[in-house]
Specification:
- The chain is mainly alpha-helical.
- 71% of the residues lie in helices and 2% in strands.
- Strands 1-2 form a two-stranded antiparallel ribbon.
- Helix 1 packs across helix 6 and helix 3 packs antiparallel against helix 6.
- The protein starts with 9 loop residues before the first helix and ends in a 15-residue tail after the last helix.
Length: 238
């Protein structure tokens, strides 16, 4: 049963309204954090709002998908995982211990395995999609998660992460988390956008924009090690 504002009642309607609201907050806050001076006041404050909103967004997305009986309900946890690990990379929390890091890494691998399974199933279905998700996108997203889990393993084995690697880990996970939100909204919910403003090229730019920013920051921080203009509490050793 699909949950919509027209059909939902009671708790389902409350959860859907909350999910939609935190999604909008996440997109706005994430866009501010993405464009603001890194490490500056606007970046820090909007980044905190974005992180909490994305974690709530991912949890409610999984809950809604589970309620609807849709396959891949665990995928909503993907966004929460990426943003949580990005946030704690620069702002470690007392509760996030080595055991928690290991648990999050295992969660990422479980999500990836389940996602690859759905991708294989989608290849055998008409249109090569399942639950509205194309097989190619499923393979792409879950390959990213495998890479993230490998990054977790390397960090855990090394006992931490410093320098430009730490900064890059934070930036790419935040940007990819924002991409999940913008892609789900501007492309996944395209049919609900009023026709007068349903301009496909613009929607694709808004959806894919965070990926472009992600590639830029990886090129600048990891390849060129160019940190000029970044505000940090402690100097970053390259």
């Amino acid at each position: 049963m699909r949950v919509t504002f027209a059909t939902a009642t009671g708790l389902a309607l409350v959860v859907l309204a909350f999910h939609f609201s935190v999604g909008l907050v996440a997109i706005v806050a994430g866009s501010i954090a993405m464009t603001a001076r890194k490490g500056g006041a606007w970046h820090r404050k909007s980044g905190v709002v974005f992180s909490y909103a994305m974690i709530a967004l991912g949890i409610t997305a999984s809950g809604i998908a589970f309620y609807e009986g849709k396959p891949g309900f665990e995928s909503g946890l993907l966004a929460s995982y990426l943003v949580l690990t990005a946030y704690t990379t620069v702002r470690p929390l007392p509760a996030i211990t080595r055991r928690v890091d290991i648990a999050l890494m295992i969660l990422a691998l479980v999500i990836a395995v389940a996602g690859y399974r759905l991708g294989v199933i989608a290849l055998g279905l008409p249109g090569k999609e399942i639950g509205g998700a194309p097989a190619g996108m499923l393979f792409f997203l879950n390959t990213i998660i495998v890479l993230a889990a490998i990054g977790d393993f390397r960090m855990i084995r090394a006992g931490g992460i410093q320098g430009t690697r730490r900064l890059a880990r934070h930036l790419w996970r935040m940007c990819f988390g924002l991409f999940i939100a913008t892609g789900s909204f501007f492309l996944g919910q395209m049919r609900f956008i009023p026709k007068p403003i349903r301009i496909l090229p613009l929607l694709y730019i808004l959806a894919i924009g965070p990926l472009v920013v992600l590639l830029y920051w990886l090129w600048r921080v990891r390849l060129r090690k160019q940190l000029r203009g970044l505000v940090t509490v402690n100097p970053i050793e390259t």
